[in-house]
Amino acid sequence: MSFSEQDKIKVAREYFIRADQRRVDILDLFNEDAEIYFPKFGFGFGRQSFFEMVKGFEGILENIQHDCDTMILQEVKLLADVSATCLNFETNA
């Protein structure tokens, strides 16, 4: 299944909404074999690695809230010859 850029942006926005609400169904947004990257923790593979990453915030981060109304999401091609993409975001404040 191929996603348009707008579809990917909708999924990314939904990710931040679910993360802020601490919803367990956030995993529904990931493929079973998802590759997850967060700079502090590096790469993780599979849905379960997302929870392992989140555990790393225990005791450090009490709460987080993303301003999804002003967040700007856009697809960024990493390399012309690589099919991988990532979603960057910045606030428009």
Provide an overview of this structure.
This protein has one domain (5-91). β1 (35-38) and β2 (42-45) form a beta hairpin. Helix content is 27%, strand content 24%. It has 93 residues and is α+β, with helices and mostly antiparallel strands.
Poorly predicted ranges: 78-93
Largest sheet: 2 strands, antiparallel
| Whole-number mean pLDDT | 74
Which percent bin holds the helix content? 25-40%
How much of the sequence is in beta strands? 15-25%
Continuous helix count: 2
**Spatial strand arrangement across the major sheet:** 1-2
Number of strands: 4
Can you write the helix and strand succession as a string?
Answer: HEEHEE
What is the radius of gyration computed over CA atoms, rounded to a whole number of angstroms? 14 Å
Quick gist of this model?
This protein has 93 residues and is α+β, with helices and mostly antiparallel strands.
Secondary-structure blueprint:
Layout: H1 5-20, E1 35-38, E2 42-45, H2 47-55, E3 71-77, E4 85-91
Antiparallel strand pairs: 1-2, 3-4
Key terms for this structure?
93 residues; alpha+beta; two-stranded antiparallel ribbon; 2 helices
